[in-house]
Specification:
There is one protein chain. The chain is an all-alpha fold. The chain has one domain. The chain is 48% helix and 0% strand. α2 packs parallel to α3.
Length: 107
C-alpha cells in the first residue's frame, strides 16, 4: 500500500468516527480530559529492493530530521513527542536497529 492510500484510509476512518459521535449528548466534565494520540509506524528502511547504502541513508535521514520535527512541541507535562515503531523481527540489519534504538534513548 502506498502512503497516500494509507493516509486517505486513516482520514476516512477518523471522519466516520467523528460523524458517528457528533449527535451524542454532551456531558459536563469537571476535570481535565486527557486525549492520547497514537500513530503506528511499520518501519522497514531497506524495502523495495534498495541497496545497503540507500538503507543507511534512510535511517540517518530519520535520525537527523525527527528531532528537528518535534522540537518545540510539548505535551501538558512538558514532554516531547516520542517515536516508536514496529520493527519486524525478520529484518536482520543490525545497523538500522541499533540506530533506531539510539533515537529512543536520546530523546
Amino acid at each position: 500500500m502506498n502512503r497516500l492510500f494509507k493516509l486517505t484510509f486513516m482520514l476516512k476512518t477518523i471522519m466516520r468516527y467523528i460523524k458517528s459521535h457528533r449527535n451524542r449528548s454532551i456531558t459536563k466534565v469537571e476535570a481535565p480530559v486527557h486525549i492520547v494520540f497514537c500513530t503506528v509506524d511499520h518501519y522497514e528502511p531497506g524495502t523495495d529492493g534498495i541497496n545497503r547504502q540507500a538503507e543507511i541513508e534512510n535511517v540517518d535521514k530519520l535520525l537527523n530530521k525527527y528531532p528537528k520535527l518535534v522540537e518545540g512541541h510539548f505535551d501538558s507535562g512538558g514532554n516531547i513527542p516520542k517515536r516508536t515503531w514496529f520493527f519486524p523481527p525478520h529484518y536482520h540489519r543490525y545497523y538500522a536497529l541499533r540506530k533506531l534504538v539510539s533515537l529512543s534513548f536520546s530523546m
